[in-house]
Structures are given as structure tokens and as C-alpha cells.
């Protein structure tokens, strides 16, 4: 298994495999990987004849095999791309399982003139190829490429390129600031960049503009953590907490944000019980309606007594971190354990 950086290096050396499995959360990044191979193997003038795309949600194994077996027209290579290949997901229905089993066998006999690229998207940012048994098996007969987050310098540069491709210059400091605030997913990054470009309307982009339009990505992570707690998904919640601590190493800030989120849920529950609707709550907290809908949904998974207890647990942990020399990460994980014990 390799990453995007290694893939780029291999393509530059003209080391291109017969088949690839692409996976990750960022479809825009994956599409760049697909274009990288296609543009280096298929003649642009013959693209319509030697480049076939199949929808992985609806295609059959016969469709895939027929596309791969057809000889290239006036060229050495042809490419077949199966996008959003549902049959590569770890848990699928019987139909997709059958396609996967056929693909696994067929890859050993893939024609030398065909480059087959299949990709699928993870559902969750805590997913990775090592957790997928199908990917482990495919890694023995195909080249698996995991499109994880880009390294910092490259990530910042690519964010600048997103603005430039839309005819807008952004300063390096502002680009880095934007990159740290937005979720690390280029589908989202492009939408948020479009929003800022439209808002600034030809003016220079400033940090104030970014603050007005982009919420902190750390706030999104805390929201996700509370959501996992509300769904009683303990293992995923611990994984996310560990990821947050690894990224920022700011234990006091994280626990304060968790406590404030429970406090907000407590307040919203009281407002809901007093007859306020979602629009009223959205206006009070100056939040988009769809965010308030999610918050109200979270509220409904706790009662008042539970929310009070959750705030107490956070406060107790915060005091321990301030007044004693305990292992902070271990104490935070223990806090999460105690939260899941609340009935």
C-alpha cells in the first residue's frame, strides 16, 4: 500500500501498474490521482475511445470485464475507472460481495493493455485501509493507494492553488490560516473558497473575512465527538478523542469545549421544553437552522439529569488536570469512560 506522494513519484518515473485501488475520504484528491494516471497513459485525442468510466453503485462484473477486455483503439493502453465502487466496502450486500469475489479472481488475469482503477470513499474519518479486510486481500494482486491527508507544506500550497484556479490570489499567511480552519477535504475546501471569493468580491482576502465565513475545524471535531457519545459509539469516540489530543495537545481547551457543548445541549433542551422551535433557537444562538436541527436531535438522546451529570464529570476532570500531576491523556480517556457509564 502506498500514499499519494509515492504514487506521484512512481508515475513520474513511468512506473504505472496494471490495476489500482484508491481509497480515502477526499474524493477531489482521489480524482486528482485518477487524472494523474490517465493523463500520463492515454492520448488526449483518443480519450473518448480509450477511457471508460463505470458507476460503482450500479455496474455489474460483466460490465467491468467487457470494458477491460476490449482492445484499445489506435493506442497501447486503455483505462477503465470504476468510481464509488460499493463492492469494495468492508460490509456490503450479497450482490456486491459477488462482484468483489469475481474482481478478486479477475485481477490476476487482467489484460496487459488495460489499466483498471477502482475507488471508493470511507464513511468516517477514523476509517483506514487496514481496517478493511477486502482491501487487505486486494493489496496482494493490485496496487492500493490510500489518499490520506497531505503533508502540511503541500497542503498549504494546494489550498493556494484552489484560489488561483478560480482567478483569485490569496496571501500565504491567509491561505495557511484558511487551511487550518477549514476541514481537510478538498471537496469542502473548494466550496468554502468559492464562498470567500464571492464574499470578498475582488477585494483582498483577510483573516476577518475567513473568520466570518469559516467555523473552526476543531469545533466540528468536538461536535462529532458529542454525536458519537449520543449514539453510544464508545470505541469511535475514544479514537476521535485520541486524534484530537494528538493534533493539538491542548487538553484544557478540548475538555472546556466538550463541557461547553454539553452546557449548550442542556440550555437548548430547556428552551425546547419551554416551547421554542428550531428557528427561535437558531436565532438565539446565531446558528444555521440545519446545525440547530442536529443539536436538537442530540438533545433528544439525553435527559436533563444525564446532561447535568455529564457536565459534572467534565468539571471534575478539568479540576483534576488543573490541580494534580496526573497523566492528562489517561485522565481524559477515563472521563470519556465515565461519560459512557451515565445511565
Describe the SSE topology.
Elements: E1 2-3, H1 4-12, E2 19-24, H2 27-39, H3 47-50, E3 51-55, H4 61-69, E4 78-83, H5 94-106, E5 114-121, H6 133-138, E6 143-147, H7 152-165, H8 172-181, H9 186-200, H10 207-213, H11 217-230, H12 234-248, H13 251-273, H14 278-285, H15 289-299, H16 304-323, H17 328-340
Parallel strand pairs: 1-6, 2-5, 2-6, 3-4, 4-5
Helix pairs in contact: 7-8, 11-12, 11-13, 12-17, 13-15, 13-16, 14-15, 16-17
Please state the overall shape, judged from the principal axes of the Cα atoms: globular
The CATH topology of the largest domain is given as Rossmann fold
Mean pLDDT: 89
- Order of strands in the sheet with most strands: 1-6-2-5-4-3
Helicity range: 55-70%
Task: Please write the string of helix (H) and strand (E) elements.
Answer: EHEHHEHEHEHEHHHHHHHHHHH
Total separate domains: 3
Overall radius of gyration = 24 Å
Low-confidence stretches: none
Number of strands: 6
CATH class of the largest domain: Alpha Beta
Q: What features would you describe in this structure?
A:
- By secondary structure, the chain is an alpha/beta fold.
- It has three domains: 2-147, Rossmann fold; 152-213, Helicase, Ruva Protein, domain 3 (Orthogonal Bundle); 217-340, Zinc Finger, Delta Prime, domain 3.
- The chain has helices at 4-12, 27-39, 47-50, 61-69, 94-106, 133-138, 152-165, 172-181, 186-200, 207-213, 217-230, 234-248, 251-273, 278-285, 289-299, 304-323, 328-340; strands at 2-3, 19-24, 51-55, 78-83, 114-121, 143-147.
- It has a six-stranded parallel sheet, with helices on both faces.
